Amino acid sequence: MSDTTASGLPNTACDGRMSYAVFQLARAHRGHAAAMLRALNLHPGQELLLMQLFDHDGQTQAELLERVGLDHSTVSKSLRRMQEAGLLTRETAPHDRRVMVVSLTDAGRALQEPIADMWRTLEQISVRDLTPDQVEMFTACAHTIEKSLRDHSRQAPVG
């Protein structure tokens, strides 16, 4: 293993090397994705909402919240911006006026292939120096870590 000081690992993070690496990876990946999304006139996170709508158009705002795992204010703000940009509509549900149904417009649907291309390119850039086995192992480890964090959050006492 290389010298952690040379890699820029702060001394305070020495007992959290993996967590620091995840943070650095997430920051680099998100930054690269954000630049690619800007070329599509999207903000980070908006593509996640669109991808959910590509698969199941006409979802309620609550369903989208659950599927993307973002907080209510972030999703509401993103949906408002996307509606103003003409990518989707939000209308009250006929069965309950408190429920908002989110649907794609033609302009929103037209982003499906560009977003798929963007994710494909981001994947190619991300894994270019990894073997297929390393990609599988990393993906499995990432899912395991995510599950551990979610499980811990559910068990953590509030307050």
Write the layout of secondary structure elements.
Elements: H1 17-38, H2 46-55, E1 59-60, H3 61-68, H4 72-84, E2 88-93, E3 96-104, H5 106-109, H6 112-127, H7 132-155
Antiparallel strand pairs: 1-3, 2-3
Output the strand order for the largest sheet. Answer: 1-3-2
The biggest beta sheet is recorded as:
3 strands, antiparallel
Number of helices: 7
Poorly predicted spans? 1-6
- Please, what is the average pLDDT? 91
Per DSSP E runs of 2 or more residues, the count of β-strands stands at 3
Describe this structure as you would to a colleague.
The protein is mostly helical and 159 residues long. The chain has seven helices and three strands. It has a three-stranded antiparallel beta sheet with strand order 1-3-2. β2 and β3 (96-104) form a beta hairpin. The longest helix has 24 residues, at 132-155. It is globular and about 55 Å long. It starts with 16 loop residues before the first helix and ends with a helix. The relative contact order is 0.10.
Task: From the structure above, extract its key features.
single chain, 159 residues, mainly alpha, three-stranded antiparallel sheet, 7 helices
In short:
With 159 residues, this protein is mostly helical.
